[in-house]
Structures are given as C-alpha cells and as structure tokens.
Amino acid sequence: MTGSILFLLIIVLGGIAWFFGRVKARGFSATNTKRGAVHSLPTYHGWYVALWAIGPALLFLIVWNIASPALITDAALASPAAEQLPSDQFARGAILAEARSIASGQQVRAFNPLSQSMVEPYRTAISYYQMIGMVAALLLVFACGVFAWLRLKPELRARTKIERITMMTLLLASLIATITTVGIFASLIFESARFFSMVSPIDFLFGTEWNPKAVAGPRGETGFGAIPLFWGTVFIGAIIAMIVAIPLGLMSAIYLTQYAAPGFRAWMKPILEVLAGVPTVVYGYFAALTVAPALRDFAVSIGISGASSESALAAGVVMGIMIIPFVSSMADDSIAAVPSAMRDGSLAMGATKSETIKKVLIPAALPGVVGGVLLAVSRAIGETMIVVMAAGLAANMTANPFSSVTTVTTQIVQLLTGDQEFDSPKTLAAFALGLVLFIVTLLLNLIALRVVKKYREAYE
Amino acid sequence: MTELIDNASSSESPIMTETAPPAISAGDGPLKMTTRNVDVFYGEKQAINGVSIDVTMDNVTAFIGPSGCGKSTFLRCLNRMNDTIPIAKVSGEITLEGEDIYAPSMDVVQLRARVGMVFQKPNPFPKSIYDNIAYGPRIHGLASTKDELDNIVETSLQRAGLWGEVSDRLQDSGTALSGGQQQRLCIARAIAVDPEVILMDEPCSALDPIATAKIEELIHELRGKYAIVIVTHNMQQAARVSQRTAFFHLGTLVEYGVTSDIFTNPTQEKTRDYITGRYG
Q1: pLDDT of residue B230
Q2: What is the pLDDT of residues A9-26, one digit of tens each?
Q3: A227-458 has which CATH code?
Q4: Residue B280, in any domain of the structure
Q5: Quick count: other Cβ atoms within 10 Å of Cβ A79?
Q6: Nearest C-alpha of chain B: how many angstroms from A372?
Q7: Which CATH number belongs to the domain containing residue B12 in this structure?
Q8: In what order do the strands lie in the sheet with B60-64?
Q9: Range(s) within chain A of domains with CATH label 1.10.3720.10
Q10: Cβ <8 Å between B117 and A348
Q11: A272-296 per-position pLDDT tens digit
C-alpha cells in the first residue's frame, strides 16, 4: 500500500468519524431540547471528531516520513549483506543510495554489483517500516477518533474549538508567504556574506571594473566593481524608462479621468491595464528585434558613433512602455481620489479645465503620483527579460543611450547560466547583486507605500 | 431683453398665470439675473420644472425647500456649474445683466468670474492661504504686479472678515484652518475676482453654530456689494439673512416673495405646511 492510498484511507476514515460524531450529537441534541443545553450544532461535533481522527495521524505520517529513511538504512546495514561493503564513506554512500533507489522502484538495474546485494535487505527494511508506519497511523486514527467521540457531550464547546482551528489554519497559510520571503532574504544575506569574505564590499560597491571572468584567484579577486552595473540599471530603469513612462502615463491618466467620455474610458482603461499583463519576454523580443535595430540605424544615419544593436535606449524605451500602465493606473487612482469639491471650486472660479488640472488636481494628486512612480521604478530596476534581450552585456559606464550597457539583473542571469561551481566568487557575486537589488526595491516600495498612505489619509 | 427687465423690475408682486408656472419677480432695486421657464433634466429625470425667478442686486435671495426639491440644482444653473455633469440638460432662459448665459457667445470662464460660488463643504485648495485667494486673480489676470495681487488678497480677506485671523500666516496651508475659517476663506476666494453675483450652496451646513453666526454676519455685510443667492435647508437662517425667499418643492417654484411675507403670511398651502413643519 503506497502513501497516497494510505492518505486517502485516512481521509475516508475522517469522513466516517465526522458522520459518527454528528450522529451522536444529533442524538443528545434531540433529548436536550432546552435552549442552550447543547452548546454547538451537530455539524461542529462531527468536525471535532473528524479533525481529531485525521490531524494526529497526518502529523505522525509527516514525522515518520522524515525519520524512517535513517531507520531503514540502519536496518539495512545491520543485515549480513552489509559486511562486504567498502569502509570508504563515499563508496559506501553511493552503493547504499543505488540500492535504495532500486528497492523503491526508481531505478531498474544496478551499476555496482555490490548494490544489487544490498537491494534485498533494503526492500525488507522498507516494507517493514512502511508497515509499522501504516499500522501506527491507522491506530492513531482509531484511537484519537474514539477518544474524541467519547468526549462528545452536550456542553462540549466544539464550535469554539473548530473556530480556533480555522483561525490557526488561515494564520499558517499567511505565514508561509512571509516566512518564505524572510528565508529568501536570509539566504541572500548568507551567500552574500560568503562573497564578501572573498571580495571586499568597498571594491564591490564602489569599484568601476566589472569583469568577473578574469578573476585572478583566491584573495586576489578583481573585476567585481559593480558601479557600471548600478549605473546601467539606473540609466535604463530609472532614467530612460521613466522619461518615457511618466509623461505618457500621466497624460493618459489625465485624459482618461478628465476628458474621456464614460463609454471610451470604460473600454480604454481595461485595455491599458491588460498591457501590464503582457509577459515581459514579449516586450523583450519586441525590444531586441524591432526597436533596437531601428534605433541603431537611426543613430548611424545621424552619425552617432558607438551605436550598437543592443542599446540602453531600446531597452529603456520598451521598459518605459511596459511601465506606462503602472504609472497611469496609479495616477488615475490618485487623481480620481481628489475630492470633486476641489475641481468644482476651481471651475467655479472661472478656471478652465486645463488650468484646473494643472493648478489644482495635479498638485493635490502629486503624492499619489510620486508613490506610483516610485513603485514603477522599483519594478523597472528589477525587470530582467527586456534588458537581458536588448541591453547587452558590456559593462560600460556611458551616458550615450545608443551604446550597450548592462544591468544588475542581466549580470545575475549571466553569472548563474551554465555549469557553475557554487562556491566561486563569480557565482556568489550573483547573490551579492541580488541582495543590493532586493534592498533597493524594498526601500523604494516602503517609501512609495508610505507616501501613498499619507496622501490617502489627508483626504479621508 | 431690456424690455423684459423693465417689465420684470416694474412688477412688485408675484404674477400668477394659469398656463405657465409663475414668472415671479420679488424685486426692488436693479435686476441682476432673471430666469424664465428653466427646465433641468438629468438624463430622463426632470429635476427642475419651469422655474422663473428674478434676482435683484440689493437683496439676499434665499432658496428653501425640502431635500431633493432641486434648489441646489437650480442654483448651479446660474453659473453653469451643471455643465460639468454630462447628463444634465438645461433649457429655458437665464440672463445676467440681460445677456443670455446659455447663448453660444457666452464664455463660461467669463461667466463664472462674474458669478462666483461658495459650496456646501468648505473646499479650499491644498495651497497656502495666499495662493487660495490669489488663484482667481491669477487665472483672470487681474493683477499685473505683486503689489496689486497683495492688495487684492488683503482686501478680499478683509471683506470676508478673515484678515485679522490670518494676516500673520498667509503662507500656511488653507486646509489647516478651522471649518468656519475655511468657509470664509472660500468666500474671500470668490470675492477676489470681484464677481457681481455670489451663489452660496448651503454654506453653513458643515459648520458649528458659532461659525455659522459669523458667516451670516458676513452675508449681511456683503449685501448690496454683490447680489447674493443662498440655498439653505435651515428656515431660520433664511429668515435671518435674506430679504427675498423662494420656496421650491419637487422641482417647481411654489412661491417667491419678500422673506417676512413668506414666513408670516404665505399664499400657498404647501409653503405654509413646510414652514410650520408639516413636512420637510
């Protein structure tokens, strides 16, 4: 009997437990008709018994699955066949691993004849411990189920207990996301610390030469100056993309909130928002195949030197277009949140529509717009696909938008592509870059959310 | 058009006709605005039905009536603020100094400079007190030098009775003032463009009694300098501040006349019922 069948069986038994619990509760509910004499509805008693039956058994199975491999290996080693095994740790481990995968059916034939001899002991041990686990789990189901069933009384506060378990389950679900983020952050810090033990943080944060392939060797590491990467990221994500996205996003938001007829707005706004859902890889090849060559030809035709087919401008412009929906929808929200009394007040003074927008609506909506722009920047500098495809790999420190620059995200992809040793500074540099990116976007998000929140409070 | 003004200003008592809803003048003193057979539709729904009324220069005119009777809607026709609502349609004739304000030749920007408005909730712009007042003069180019602008700001605040309270903190935000001060700031802002008419849409409904008393006092002081039309749901307030009162009910003008007459001796039963608190 495999694990999944056992699992199904436990669930079915839980269902039966639910049924018996409910039947018993119905029984005493029928005899105690006085209001309040039975604390909870029969269903809650049913759930109470069911959860008692299932919960401990499933917990036991989880623990058992973690603990049993060690027990199985011990049992297999205790068998007479184990005496021929080599004493070398690695050889021994390899044989045991092979024997185990044959025994559990993941592998068909052994490469090492010694493994074949270990298969039989393994098989016995596995089925032995599986049987123990199964029997123990089923015993737990019955024992706990009966225990809970016996405890069912009219005054048992089953509803309160079920409510608490529901709350705990929801809490657990929300904790998983948070804990995962914390875990990712911790691993970034841990790996970055290893990197910084090989490369000085000063060299990394303020060095201007990025060339991780030309690493000299232990303790003599050079070529990890990340300034060109930071510059490229800022140049593309925070400068070029924003030059495109802020005016276009803001103007489209103004048009949609102030000028567009309701019918036009009703289908234009969703379309704009759909743009935010286009996979970035689509924008990426649009940038690499269409925009970049066009820009290069244009640059060549007006005689700009150093124009390459991978340019900061191409990546930045396309990224800006990708960001427009973010800016536009945040600006839209904050302009719409300006009380209409403000607009009426200005119009009643004889201000025209555009004067009202320029002098009253935009200043009043500014904090919200700034918050939106900051969120857009944090999204832009973390964006990977477009820059990988269109920005290039050369770590140039240049302000010429037609030349190729590289970004933090592009370099992370480069550093981790292909076969890598996991303890070389070259690989670990990716974590350090990731950490910097993580901290910067985190700060941007924090500031943006604070600005937006403060602004919301002002009008509520 | 001059003919109409002459006719209207010469008639002292309400004119009642069988066919059309009453075209009413309660005027003495020069006529400022007239309306004839004004209908307002919100989409299919008719909000105002054939209202004709004259607004004179020297009197404060109050519009009273139960909630939803259309008094605010009608007020907003007088400076074409209903233009901002796409589904609102206004028909009939409304004139300012004999000029049809809904005529294609009328520039709505000019009109609103001449007919100012104060709203139900104080709505100062999130700018400094100074910039709030200077907003209108700047838009309309009323001041060519900084001194002139300073001057307009000071006079407006003085007229609105706010100068003494804010003269030393003109650069503070207008939104930091108290509710009553904010409303007087909005009145000062309206005065700053030197309008001919000031429309007030329940200007005290968001204020406490003391701030309300100050605004009412201010209305008294402004009377005669500007033609003032005030919408209020507070009958005592209408009685205190106005010389002419119009009673609206379900989008029609029921009665219009001298305030004291309306409150002591109304001619229409509906008016009497409302004033004695039978409904509303």
Answers
A1: 95
A2: 999 999 999 999 888 888
A3: 1.10.3720.10
A4: no
A5: 15
A6: 20
A7: 3.40.50.300
A8: B115-118, B197-201, B227-231, B60-64, B244-249, B252-258
A9: 227-458
A10: yes
A11: 888 888 888 899 888 888 888 888 8
